[in-house]
Amino acid sequence: MSEFFLILMGFFIVVANIIGFISYKKRKSLYFASFTILILAGAFGGIGAILALFIIRDAFAVFYGLNLAYYLLINSLIVFLLAILVTIIKKCTGKKL
User: Fold this and answer.
1) CA–CA separation, 42 vs 32, rounded Å?
2) How many CA atoms, within 13 angstroms, populate the side-chain half-sphere of residue 48?
3) Residue 68 · residue 47 · CB < 8 Å
4) 30-47: per-residue pLDDT in tens?
5) Residue closest to 79 by CA, chosen among 26, 13, 8, 7
């Protein structure tokens, strides 16, 4: 059972990053991409918690969704820090990346 939830967690993380990449391509803003991943952290965390509740049928299954949301929040923070780094590099070099 734990392998299923690990695969599901990896799937949600990959889907969130793909949606973040699509939003980056559409808006050309890394900040918007990190915000999209941040919003998806709550959405996918809730979906994961509800799914775990239905499968495991235990109140502690909610922590699976919280764990998934935590990983996506860290992912969003990494994208946000990369956006800040790219902005600083653009300002210092005067070039468009």
Assistant:
1) 16
2) 28
3) no
4) 889 888 988 988 898 888
5) 13
